[in-house]
Amino acid sequence: MAPPSQRRVVLTLGLAQTLAWASTYYLPAMLAAPMAADLGLATPMVFAAFSLALGVAALVGPRVGQAMDRWGGRAILAATSVLFAASLVALGHVQGLWSLLLAWCGLGLGIASGLYEAAFATVVRLYGQQARKAITGITLLAGFASTVGWPLTHWMQLHWGWRSTCWVWAGVHLVLCLPLYLSLPSDRQVPTPAPVSPAGTDGAQRPRLDLRTGLLALVFAASGFISSAMAAHLPALLQACGIAAGLALTVGMLMGPAQVAARLLEFSLLRHLPPLVNARLATVLHPVGAALLLLLGPPGALLFGVLHGAGNGMLTIARGTLPLQLFGPQGYGHRQGLLQGPARVAQAQAPWLFGVALAQWQGQALWLSAALGLLSVAALLVLSRHMAKG
């Protein structure tokens, strides 16, 4: 039987993922302050609850990946829409610290099973080695999640309060995301194509830990740390580098369009290059931008915003395409859970650790993220040589 139309699947998943990211991962940026004020907590405590959610996602990620391999991404995504809705309703009812932490634990379970990894697993089961274009298309559409989510969340919070905002987003999951996922073609019965090579799997077709897996997990963890640190501290970091507040805001606004532009480039001109080549290009952009900012000051700020945004956008695609290129579609969901676990932990710790570095070193803290970017480049070069020898 011919595989279903990629265009319809990509549009469906892209729209649903935009809403899912906007209503979960990007929620604290707009709601943390009013939530903390209403609950009588310090704002960092709300971000700590978000970090707990990412930690939960890291712990359950491999199990969720196994469930995707068994039941299909469509079923997991549909169930997660209900979980997201229930957790957001609970978040809107919290009265103190413990109920806040519990609600974010529920959202953490949803983050593990309802964002990019599940969407990527769905298209890999449907299209096998031909899923790269679909993965790129999904990330291209969902790249507007913050562009859509932040203004909507801010507007709802101003007019209705943070609790009602959580409940509205819960309704979005039930009224829009759930029907979108249920409209997808079933991927449970789609035969998984045989892997290009049996290397990296055991007899039960479960991924095993090897050098390639370790190097790829390192790359994803380092890039996750950089992305999370910049998302949390970019305005303060730029001002610590001597950038005026107005220019810092402009730099921040450039990052979203740069991400989308880089994904468009990946979708068109770069789609014929191996994902490993594109990943090396993506990882080098943040260190180059950081060096320009630190060496040139304000003239390098705009270049930093564009380069960091572009690299981050391309690395999001690499999270889906690199495991597919290196290991094939067999056991894809489980492997994604293994690979993304360290990245979730790094993302959870980045706001705090980079905040400490920023307080101690001011703008020179940017060398820390640049060094992690270069570590990713080195890991990918080692991976390329290992693949060439293999």
Describe this structure as you would to a colleague.
About 80% of the residues lie in helices and about 0% in strands. The protein has about 400 residues and is mostly helical. The protein folds into two domains: about 5-180, Growth Hormone, Chain: A; about 210-390, Growth Hormone, Chain: A.
Please write out the topology.
Elements: H1 6-22, H2 28-39, H3 43-71, H4 73-92, H5 97-114, H6 116-127, H7 132-142, H8 145-160, H9 162-182, H10 211-240, H11 245-267, H12 275-296, H13 298-327, H14 332-361, H15 366-389
What are its keywords?
390 residues, mainly alpha, Growth Hormone, Chain: A, 2 domains, 15 helices, 81% helix
Summarize the main sheet: none
CATH level 1 class label of the largest domain: Mainly Alpha
Q: What ranges have pLDDT less than 50 throughout 5 or more consecutive residues? A: 190-204
What kind of oligomer do you see? single chain
Number of extended strands:
0
In one word, what is the shape?
A: globular
Radius of gyration: 20 Å
Order of helices and strands: HHHHHHHHHHHHHHH
